[in-house]
Amino acid sequence: xxxxxxxxxxxxxxxxxxxxxxxxxxxxxxxxxxxxxxxxxxxxxxxxxxxxxxxxxxxxxxxxxxxxxxxxxxxxxxxxxxxxxxxxxxxxxxxxxxxxxxxxxxxxxxxxxxxxxxxxxxxxxxxxxxxxxxxxxxxxxxxxxxxxxxxxxxxxxxxxxxxxxxxxxxxxxxxxxxxxxxxxxxxxxxxxxxxxxxxxxxxxxxxxxx
Length: 210
What we know:
The protein has about 210 residues and is of the alpha+beta class. The chain is built from four helices and 14 strands. It has helices at about 5-15, 35-50, 55, 85-90, and strands spanning about 25, 60-65, 70-75, 75-80, 105-115, 120-130, 130-135, 135-140, 150, 155-160, 160-165, 170, 175, 190. The strands form three sheets. It has an eight-stranded antiparallel β-sheet with strand order 9-8-14-5-6-13-10-11, with no helix packed on it. The two termini are about 30 Å apart.
């Protein structure tokens, strides 16, 4: 109805600069005042303004009503589910590249912290490369910083709206872990097996823009 919002510009700019492709989802298509052609034109103009390549401006379009759980490839032909959106994402967006799932290659950047009355302070991280298991000797480190070592106690992955305890997880998973009470946002979770002799390097922390 309204076209791209300011937050859309910010996120799209970051994605385009990383060379990523996008799927345009025209939401709230069920509204009487919906203007799908106007919205698509505005979105295309935004892509061009942000310096998108020809490949990036050739984006796929899905029309949807998030409130009703409907989606389709035409504004007047919505299905009763989100299958059109999911299929378009799978067909249009390149899958992530996994370099390794070996334990020694573990790199998981901590982006959030949680707290549990029984498990204590818990780190939330996405595994970029490698794998990790419950009970593993690990380290937390930032580039140029001291290494904080310990044993990973409990390991969880996110399952729908909750968490599920697992024995191990590998690259691509978003994990939550306990056992390291000194974990901080910006730490990289690394292996410390054999005192970290074969451990990977810590990742640079995420820069927070004002």
